[in-house]
Amino acid sequence: MxxxxxxxxxxxxxxxxxxxxxxxxxxRIPSPRNLQSAEFGNQIRYxxxxxxxxxxxxxxxxxxxxxxxxxxxxxxxxxxxxLVVLANxxxxxxxxxxxxxLPVSYESVIFIVEVFAVVSEAAFMYLLAKKFCPLSFRQxxxxxxxxxxxxxLSGFLI
Length: 158
Description:
Elements: H1 2-24, H2 52-74, H3 79-98, H4 106-132, H5 137-155
Helix pairs in contact: 1-2, 1-5, 2-3, 2-5, 3-4, 4-5
């Protein structure tokens, strides 16, 4: 339990540092209303299919890093990181190509995508882990939540 608490503290510390950086750099983040304005032009293209491979690769790196911290702290099998990679390869393109087409605001799309990512990645990892490594749904959900939170906050810095 002590290692678990240290692990959660470490991940929360990273999240706090990232969120502080996000707040410090909000002047560089366009509001959804300004995305099509002359100020931003074509510099920022959210959910562009040409960018999918790059952002998938970046997401795999970031989420593997955050999941790796948890795996090392809680002493789970390192195979769990492979589950993270597989979950991203399978689910990320679906989320990238499907949810932005919904007739809702940009903020709503982001919320829907993040909830989908946490729940679906947790379920995917849990179901796949049954085959070759012990991973409870609770652990899969914690890993999914932490890695998606870290990835989401890191996205503001890029």
